[in-house]
Amino acid sequence: MTSQLNGSVLKAFKILDLFAAGKSELTAKETADALGINMITA
What we know:
Elements: H1 2-20, H2 28-35
């Protein structure tokens, strides 16, 4: 459970970094593409 939680937290920070880079809006697809992950898990 701990590693799954850590992975979720890391993913959340990566998403926040996308917004910190100047993006004001992102779709789930744009987020998934930027992070290189499956859109369902974005």
